[in-house]
Design goal:
Helix 8 runs parallel beside helix 14 (405-425) and helix 16 (479-494) runs parallel beside helix 19. The chain is 37% helix and 24% strand. Helix 18 links the parallel strand 25 (547-552) and strand 26. The protein is built from 19 helices and 26 strands. By secondary structure, the protein is of the alpha/beta class. The radius of gyration is 25 Å and the shape is globular. Bound molecules: fructose -6-phosphate.
């Protein structure tokens, strides 16, 4: 996730771009840059760090009279957050610049081909490929060149292009990454999101996939990328205020991030798998097949929600790659006498990449000779810098303190990693991997289809249960970590005491707690432990406990046993963690809301725990 702004009109360009970027900073903030036409050339200023660093770097250019330009605030996906990797990126001449949000999946072969053709690259980004590709096709018409170049591109993009030879216009294009155009008297805007436009106009056009726009001060043309046909798009009037717009109309970042999960999951597997052939590609793991085959142990190392993702990962890695897996709480791991060596693989999992305990654990594992492959959301963070390789989750910035989309993206990354290990070790063949990848491919759509219904269920549940002060979450096998995660979400944002338990452990203690005052949330997929889970539900019921179940739609038996049932679709058992997690996030959210809690910034919690 990055933020793009572009403007063509009559205002001075720098204040418009900087103001827009500030309003999009929630989309990414590791580096930023702007470009505008000046004296027959394009001036480009970029800076690593937050926007104020860019603002300082622009001090000398305040007097520019240009009224056309592009800006970008970056959340790195390919290449560390540095000035060289900051957008806008340019072609060989420096006279054509591109800002981009998305992931170019085939950037590597394109880059190699363009290099062979004599293009010189100056960054590690996928975006720079776009600039050179457009340059390759550019004669005298930027629109034509962009149309042609995009035919070679696979992946997702929202992009803005500016060329010194046609300084009165910008080109915008979109495929699977958001881009909205703003219209006002003799001026046109483009932006990744509405907040950047609101101070200037409420009249917008949402670009759809496969569309390209030519923006000039007094005109706007939108064409289809397929055949170049001019499209007649509807202008819409935005009714949000600026605060609502930043959260895309959602009440809280947490809710917005819950709803972003289909995209976050998709962006995390995009370009890394071939479901048809059953191949997983993770070039970030630079371990030879020999090393992977020699591994004697995998350690998943994390804290909090990321640890829960690790607990799920253990089942996948053990089952598919046939490797013993330990899942370690980093704060405990770091003080143990560890049995690790050069045949172990340690996988730190961290959204922020800065969690102190996880980092300390990583360092110890490294010292003992273990290979380190991290799973992380923040490019260039300390954990990624100290790892031998990182499989990035592409969830975009997570602002809500309670982790939601980062968790399901971590699940996605570990799922791929587990299959990758199986592929390299030969413990699954390509047809078996293919089935698992096809299942994952469907998850974004399934989640998207269900979100609204789950949200409605969560809000009805909250109406009834928000005054309770204790909850027990039960799950077995892959749903045990999800029970832990569901309980953690509830306690951290609603301050209700909630415990997650392996359902089979109930008899060993917690069953004593069951009464009318402690609702039990039971996770009951139709998998190989279904009957066992149903027995647990019966046990709760017979002790006059209140059962809230999450179960497969059409499961009438479970429905009869439940006071309230949230239905989920039936998917392959290994995919249940994705499906069962999201309703629980929404339940926690709605209960916290009903209790009047500060959902995005719960008391006593910090987004990134950089101290012990
Ligand atoms: C809970 C939550 C925390 C984090 C934990 C680790 O919603 O967000 O439990 O998961 O602090 O943080 P990272 O993943 O940044 O290492």
């Amino acid at each position: 996730m990055c933020g793009i702004v572009g403007y063509v009109g009559h205002r001075r360009i720098l204040p418009v771009l900087l103001d827009g970027l500030k309003r999009l900073e929630y989309r990414g903030y590791d580096s930023a840059g702007v470009a505008w036409p000046e004296n027959g050339d394009v001036k480009r200023v970029r800076a690593k760090g937050k926007l104020n660093v860019l603002e300082d770097a622009l001090e000398d250019f305040r007097s520019t009279k240009s009224s056309v330009g592009l800006g970008h605030t970056r959340w790195a996906t390919h290449g560390r957050p540095t000035e060289e990797n900051a957008h806008p990126h340019c072609d060989c001449t420096g006279r054509l610049v591109v800002v981009h949000n998305g992931i170019i999946e085939n950037y590597f072969p394109l880059r190699e081909q363009l290099k062979e053709e004599g293009h010189t690259f100056r960054s590690d980004t996928d975006t720079e490929v776009l600039a050179h590709l457009i340059e390759k096709y550019l004669e005298d018409d930027l629109e034509k060149a962009v149309m042609r170049a995009l035919k070679d591109v696979e992946g997702a993009y929202a992009l803005g292009v500016l060329w010194a030879e046609q300084p009165e216009m910008l080109i915008a294009a979109r495929k699977q990454s958001p881009l909205v155009l703003g219209l006002s008297e003799n001026e046109c805007f483009m932006a990744s999101d509405i907040p950047a436009l609101l101070p200037y106009t409420k009249r917008v056009i949402f670009l759809d996939d496969g569309e390209l726009a030519v923006l000039k001060a007094g005109s706007l043309k939108i064409v289809s990328l397929d055949d170049g046909k001019i499209l007649d798009k509807e202008v819409q009037e935005i009714k949000w205020d600026a605060g609502m717009a930043e959260k895309a109309g959602y009440k809280h970042f947490m809710l917005k991030e819950i709803y972003e999960q289909p995209d976050a999951i998709l962006n995390t597997f995009r370009g890394r798998m071939e479901p048809e052939t059953g191949k997983v590609e993770l070039p970030e793991i630079e371990l030879s097949t020999d090393v992977i085959r020699r591994l004697n142990k995998v350690v998943l190392l994390a804290c909090g929600t990321s640890w829960h993702a690790g607990l799920v990962g253990k089942y996948w890695i053990e089952k598919w790659a046939r490797l013993p897996v330990e899942v370690e709480l980093a704060s405990e791991f770091r003080y143990r006498d560890l049995l690790l060596d050069e045949n172990s693989l340690t996988i730190p999992i961290s959204q922020s990449g800065e969690t102190a305990d996880t980092l300390a654990g990583l360092r110890i594992a490294k010292e003992l000779g273990s290979s380190i492959i991290s799973i992380c959301n923040v490019v260039g963070s300390t954990i990624t810098r100290e790892s031998d390789g990182t499989v990035y989750t592409h969830a975009g910035p997570e602002i809500g303190v309670a982790s939601t989309k980062a968790f399901t993206s971590q699940l996605t990354a570990i799922y791929l990693l587990a299959l990758y290990l199986a592929q390299q070790r030969g413990t699954l063949d390509h047809s078996q991997i293919s089935v698992k990848l096809k299942g994952l491919l469907d998850i974004p759509r399934i989640v998207q289809d269900r979100l609204k219904a789950w949200h409605n269920d969560a809000s009805s549940l909250a109406d009834e249960f928000y005054t309770y002060s204790d909850f027990l979450y039960l799950g077995r096998h892959l749903q045990f970590p999800i029970a832990l995660e569901g309980a953690l979400k509830l306690k951290e944002i609603s301050y209700i005491h909630a415990e997650g338990y392996a359902a089979g452990e109930m008899k060993h203690g917690p069953i004593a707690l069951i009464d009318r005052n402690m609702p039990v949330v039971a996770l009951v997929p139709q998998d190989h432990v279904y009957e066992k889970m149903v027995s647990n539900v019966e046990e709760v019921k017979s002790r006059r406990g209140i059962v809230i179940s999450v179960g497969v739609e059409g499961d009438e038996g479970l429905q009869r046993l439940s006071h309230f049932m949230v239905s989920v679709p039936k998917v392959a058992p290994e995919l249940n963690p994705f499906i069962f997690t999201i309703p629980l996030q929404l339940v926690a959210y709605e209960i916290a809301l009903a209790r009047g809690c500060d959902v995005d910034q719960p008391r006593n919690l910090a987004k990134s725990v950089t101290v012990e």
